Amino acid sequence: MDLTAVATYFSGLSFLFFGTGCLTSSYMKSEFVRYGYDRQRPITGVLQLLGGAGLMLGYWLWPVLAWLRGWGW
To answer: Which residues of 27-65 are buried (b: 16+ CB within 10 A; e: fewer)?
Structure first.
């Protein structure tokens, strides 16, 4: 497993973890309220979950595209 694969998995898992936390954690809810972004919290969580799922599935289904996404293309 090369560095790009490790970075892709780490990034995908991080997006999934923080997206779930954004939607379910009371601490994250209070942080969004504190910074004045309480209305954007649900869409942020959903987009994080979609991004994480896209990274994970994209790497398994289309490795070349996942490699390009990992490098910011």
So the answer is: ebeeebeeeeeeeebeebbeebbebbeebbebbeeeeee
